[in-house]
Every structure is written in C-alpha cells, then in structure tokens.
Amino acid sequence: MTALTGDDRLLCVRDLxxxxxxxxxxxxxxxxxxxxxxxxxxxxSGSGKTTLLKxxxxxxxxxxxxIRYRMADGTMIDLNTMSEARRRHLGRTELAFxxxxxxxxxxxxxxxxxxxGERLMANGARHYGRIxxxxxxxxxxxxxETGRIDDRPTTFSGGMQQRLQIARNLVSGPRLVxxxxxxxxxxxxxxxRLLDLLRGLVADLGLTVVIVTxxxxxxxxxxxxxxxxxxxxxIESGLTDQVLDDPREPYTQLLVSSVLAA
Amino acid sequence: MYVAVKGGEKAIDAAHEWLAEERRGNxxxxxxxxxxxxxxxxxxxxxxxxxxxxxDRELASLALKQAQGDVIEAVFLLRAYRTTLxxxxxxxxxxxxxxxxDRRISATFKDLPGGQVLGPTYDYTHRxxxxxxxxxxxxxxxxTAVPRDETMPRVLDLLADEGLMEREEAPADExxxxxxxxxxxxxxxxxxxxxxxxxxxxxxxxxLSLGYSTQRGYGRNHxxxxxxxxxxxxxxxxxxxxxxxxxxxxVMLTECQSVNQFKGDAVRPAQFxxxxxxxxxRGERKAMAMALVDRALRAEELGEAVxxxxxxxxxxxxxxxxxxxxxxxxxxxxxxYVDFQAELQLVRSLRAARVAKKEAAE
Amino acid sequence: MSGVEGYNFAYLDEQTKRMIRRALLKxxxxxxxxxxxxxxxxxxxxxxxxxGIQVTAAVLGADDTLKVIDQGADDTxxxxxxxxxxxxxxxxxxxxxxxxxxxxxxxxxxxEQPLTEGQxxxxxxxxxxxxxxxxxxxxxxRVLHALGDYGVMQVELYEDIAxxxxxxxxxxxxxEVAQRYMTSPSPIPKFDNPKxxxxxxxxxxGAGREKRIYAIPPHTPVRxxxxxxxxxxxxxxxxxxxxxxDRASYLDEIVTDDKGSRMFVCSDTDHCAERRGEIPQ
Lengths: 262, 362, 281
Ligand SMILES: Nc1ncnc2c1ncn2[C@@H]1O[C@H](COP(=O)(O)OP(=O)(O)O)[C@@H](O)[C@H]1O
Ligand SMILES: [Mg+2]
Hints:
Radius of gyration of chain A: 18 Å
Largest interface: B-C, 50 and 67 residues
Number of helices of chain A: 10
Distance between the termini of chain A: 30 Å
Number of strands of chain A: 10
Number of helices of chain B: 13
Largest sheet of chain A: 6 strands, mixed
Order of helices and strands of chain A: EEEHEEHEHHHHEHEHEEHH
Bound molecules: adenosine-5'-diphosphate, magnesium ion
Helix content of chain B: 25-40%
Helix content of chain A: 25-40%
Oligomer: heterotrimer
Strand content of chain A: 15-25%
Order of helices and strands of chain B: HHHHHEHHHHEEEHHHH
Strand order of the largest sheet of chain B: 1-2-3-4
C-alpha cells in the first residue's frame, strides 16, 4: 500500500448524521478513506451500516455533516451540495453501489450483456461491437460463462446474479465502490467463491472499497481497516487485525467472541 | 381491383343520419323531452354533471338525450361545451355545515345532534322489479314532516373538538387563486387540492373499484363512514365592486367524510384522520368511493406503506378521467395502416433472417 | 368570421389560443422539449387528434390553407372529420395538395413531397414521452430529460440487436433533437424519420390527452438513435407502387383476395394522384 498522507484522501467524512425521525439512524460519523483502501464496516443488525452506506452513495441525504470526495481532477467536492445532475453522473461513472440483494441492483428484464453494458451506454458508448466485447470480457472476469450473455438474470442462480451485479458496477472503472453485504443471503460455498473473486478483483484493480458486512470472516479477508458501529455511532476503528485480535471496546470484544449475533 | 377509399365524407354523413334515426327510435313511441330526463332520470343527470364538472341539469339532460343515455358520451358532450365557456371567477367555499339537509347518516354514532335522516334512498328497498312502474302507475305521495329544528353539526367536527380527529388546515390565504386542473397542466406531485378536484370529476366506476381495492387489502386504511350528508348549499360569489358576497343560487351536493385510523409517529400522536368525498347531485356511491381513495392517497403524507394502486397519486390521477380513457381506448379503431405496415415488414424481415440463419447452419 | 354560431374562430377562445401559443413559443425555443400546456377538452375524442387540433387552432389564420391527412391519406375518415371541423369552425380554405397548404395536420405520416419554408406541419401525438415504455412515471422521466440521462433507451436498442439482430422499432422511432432532447417523432414509420431533420418547415407536435406540446424548428438537426456499427436504416418492401410506379414512396399493403394476393400502393394519396396525372401540376 502506498503511504497514507493527508493530501490524497479520496473521501473525507465529517460529523455525518441522519435521524429517521424515530431516534434511529447514524450520528457523528468521521473517517477518511485513501485510494486503494478497503474499509470494512461491521456491527450487529440495526447498527446503522446500511444507512451510512446509503449516505455515502447519495441515496439518503444527511441532516448534518459533510462527505467530501476527491474528483479525478484532484478537486474536493461535497457530495451533498452537488447538483442532482452531477450526482447522477458521478453515480454512473466514478461511484459504484453493490446491493445486498442483486435484484435491487440489476435490471431483471434486460439480458446479462445489457446489464453490463448499461453504464457504458449511459456514458455515451455507441459502438455495439465494443460494448459487447466489454460485456463479454467482464462476464469472464466474474466467472460467468460467456454463452449466457443474452440470457436474463432471472435465469441465473443467486451467486451468478451477485457476480453479474459486480460486473455491471465495475465495467465503468469506478474510483469508489460501495458494497452492502455482498455475500449475504448466499450459501456458504457460493460465498467462498464470491469472496475469492472479490479479493482477486480488489487486488488486481486496486479498487477503493467501503464494504458493509456483519460477517467478521469477510471483513478479515477483504478489509484493510475496520469501523465498528453500534447504535448508529462508530465506537471503534483501526487496522483490521488490530480490531479483531485486540479489540478495545467491550462491545467489540463481545462481537468478536461472537457472543452477539451479528 | 383496389379502389381508393374515397367517399369517406359521404360515409360519415350517412352514418350520422343513421345515428339520428337510431336515437329517435320508433317514431310511434312518444319522444322523450329534456324535461322528462331531468325529472325522471335524475341520478343519471347528476352523474353527468359531476363527471363533466358542470352544474346544469338542463344541459346534462340534453347531453343524455343526445347520447342515447350513454353516460360517458354525455359527459364528453358537456365537457366539450364547458371548455368553451369563459371563467368569470371562483365562488367562496361552500359551507356544507350549513347544508339544507335531505339526508344525513353516520355509521359511527347511533344518535347524534340532528339525528339520522334517511332521505330518499335505495338502501333498504328490496331490489324487486316493480311492474307497476311499467304500467305507468301514479307514484303515491310521500308523507311529509316538518324538519327537526336542530342544527346538524358535522360528525367529524364533534370528534375534532375532542382532539381525536385531525383538523383540516385552511389554506393560508383563502382569497388566493384556486388551482384549476381544467385550466393548468397537471404536474406531479399534484397535492391534495388538485387531487380532490381530479377525483370529484373522475369516473365513478374507476373510483368505486379503486376504493373497493383498499377494502380488500391493496392499501388498507380502516375506514368508517363518519358522515354522509346530502342536500343543497348556497353558492356565493364576492363581487369586488360591491364589497360583499352575493348568493347566486343553490347546488345539490353529496358529501362523505370517512374516519380512518392513524397510529401516530414520532411527532404526531395517535388520532383519526379523514378521507373526503364531494360530488354534485345525489352521488352517494361516488362520494364514498372518493373518500376512500382520497384517504388512500394520503399514505405518503401519513407515513404509511404504499402497497396498492389506490395509494399512488400519479397512477390514480392519470387514469381517473373517463373522457381521456374512453378516447384513447377507442382511438385504437382509427386506421393504423402505416404503423401496422411497418410492423409487418419488420416481422417478415426478422422471420426471413431466422430462416436464412437456419439454412446457413444446415 | 367564425363558421359556427356561438363559437370563436377555429373553435377555441382567444385566451386559450394565447396560452397554446405561449407553449408553442417555448417549444420552439427549446427544440424537442415537452412543454406542459393546459390542454382543453375538444369536441373530438382524446386520442383522435385533440393535441394536433389545438395546435392547428392556435396557429391558423383566416388566410391559411389547411390540409389534413391520416395515414398519409386525405380521405381517411378521421382526416375528413378534422378537415370538416376547421372548414366549419374557421371557414378556412382546405386542400389536399401538399404544395398548396400552409398548415398540414397529420397523423402517422410526413408527406412525400418535400415541405418548404413557411409551411407548418402539425403532428397528432398519442404518447409524447419516448421513455414511457421504459419508465411509466412522469415525475421520473422529466428528471431523466432534465439530466439528459438516456442510457435506458440505448440499452433497449442494444437488447434488440442482441436478441433479434436488428433494432426492432418500426415506427415511433426515437430521435435526438438538436443534440439535446430525446423526442418521440409520433407514430410515423421510421421510413419518415430522415425527413424530420433539417426540414425548412416548422414542425409542431401536440398531445392533447397527455397535455404536452413540442417542436422541431426549421433547419434543426434530428438524429435517429442507433449504434455506430448498426446505423439507422429504413425498410422498404422493395416493390414500386402498383398505381403510380414510385419506388421511393412509403407503401400501404392492400389485401386483394383471400388467397394471399397483395398489392402495394402509395400511402400518400395526394402524391400518388399527382404522379398518375390525376391532378394538373
Ligand atoms: N426508513 C427507515 N425509517 C425508520 N427507521 C429506519 C429506516 N431504515 C432503517 N431504520 C432504522 O435505523 C437503524 C439502522 O438501520 P440500518 O442502517 O438498516 O442498519 P444495519 O444495516 O446496520 O442493519 C435501525 O434501527 C433501523 O430499524
Ligand atoms: Mg443492513
């Protein structure tokens, strides 16, 4: 990993907060993210992980705080004060969002090729042959038989759908990938294969990732750093090994010793 | 040999003449007068006035006569006339609390100030064909009584006085322009004022089915018929030159207010909420259906899950107008030769490509 | 000046016409953008040309000459009905000759004879939103237009090629107007799409039921959506018109018996009659 200096942070989150109106949500979230880093967010169900990820992805608007993001040209911008037009543009170029349920992130009525090609077309690609070649290449990378390119995702297994969703997101070469429990809801053997694949992609492409998971095994395998959430707050953060092997907070200790059903 | 479809003009003229003959029917049977329709087919006239948004019994009766009793066709005729009328201004809000009541019932209280007043209703008639009507018998005179000299407070106001029912907030500036969906393009979200306007002129059958769907689980909202009242209210207009309001006449209205549960949320305590229905004439079925749909459409405002089409503003408002729906459904009978020809060529070429591919493979 | 007692010239009252003209001006200023307007109920049914009729009523002057076609023909019943409506309510001159008309109201076709400077072509539009089949919500499609976010349509075309080997849209083929708005050309066959671009005539589109007006001003570039390696093309049955012999016009297919016999004739009746010498040039 390259040296972490303050100047090249990709993401800079300060005092972020959102209350759903029932006292739940997230508050006082602060962290930085550097290019090439994989940040894991762990915590029990209901601790605010998905809420935080949706705030980062712009699907929810925060009530307080800021999310500053470094654009490809080096300028820092606040994702929240950005116009809807720019945010949507960013959402189909630089940002990627992998949903826990692939059905939320795929177009089920569109073929696998169309799903992978969509971001390219949304960004102006107008050469059918090249779009198709890119789709074939990405299907191969996520280990989907290229012969399935004209099949609809409804005919795919859960694991294949999730891999397709990943291909669909990564095809545009995003600079920041947000993933919400990408291995959740899959059989253990399918999970292992997906995890392997993700690890390979992260390493090969040098992706910058924020990954939400309640599975500490996934966190250990993929994340460089961890943030532990409880009741909407980040209660502990640090290098993955340090947090998992030598947790400071009593809550984290319970979590790690799997006394808490995460 | 192909003959170009000339003679369209002649065919249209002939069709119209035939239609006029059909409308009149057997000339040996006496012709129906507009007055007879207004007096004896009153509920049909009411429905035409309501869905055409034009309160004029005589014109509505004429439209029904011209349309051979086809209600939607009659609504269409009256609407097309209505658009050509200048709009002089808006009346003051009518006060249904001060209604001159013919009928007033509540399903939520057994008795209440003013009492339950049945009025002219089909509710408890046994639906047996009455052959004496076919024999042109004279209707017996109904008994009369002096109206009870009591005020008839609205049931929902009684609940509101106790804090159990939400209060409707009057618009900040009542003198401000009333939105009018017949004069401005409807955009979404439309908001409740325009929604109620759309529902008031919406198709009774459509609203009935949508309201019904909420009772069957597609957007449940636990309604009670808090109050239904029917009668005449006076319409007043403020004339700037005079500086006070003048009464320009009476209209017959049916109003339905439903009482619906509301669980409450972080800011609002548990309370009853209302659905509102108001129609011209004696349109009780429509007013009730409207109240159900109005309440269903408030799902988002009240933080309820949106689970059924009746709760979806854009879906309801864009499909409730029967003149629009009737026109577009029936436009399918207009010639589509050109588009169909384009489709024919496409399907033929797709099939040819398939055959060629198969042959090449063999 | 009006032909019918109790109604204004060309049926609509002047205030309504001004409202429509304001929408038209906006439409011309922002080519391809769908301008909401307070569509009136017309004495003809929705879906039968109420949008086109309102636009025509708003642009028609006493010295205009009106032509009305449906499916390219002047004598189809709906064309006859609308032409009569204006002859009656506006008392304007009517014609079947494309060249003589100053205003042409059309449903589903663009005349074969090239239009000229000063002519206005008014289209009747059933569904003005080209994205409607992909996104039913008006609130969302308006955002997509505002942001120029048209990827979904390109995906749709991609799917056609992937599954059928070609773009499977025969009419109402979406276009991009002046390099900005994605627009529905109304259900004209795609055969007519090339005529939309850089036309010297003013093209106005009216959708009455959907309450939208849009325009393609004269000399505006219009591009039919496609892929670089699957360029837009038009279909033709490959036969000449059986009546006038034209090989380049759009043809209607006529079933002549129950044994599968067919003949192809021009859909543009004025064009065909002129070529057959039935109308003096
Ligand atoms: N739309 C919502 N309205 C109200 N409360 C919500 C909403 N979404 C989530 N919550 C609540 O906010 C808290 C955090 O939820 P979430 O971010 O989904 O947690 P996690 O992803 O860690 O399981 C939970 O208590 C949840 O019940
Ligand atoms: Mg979650």
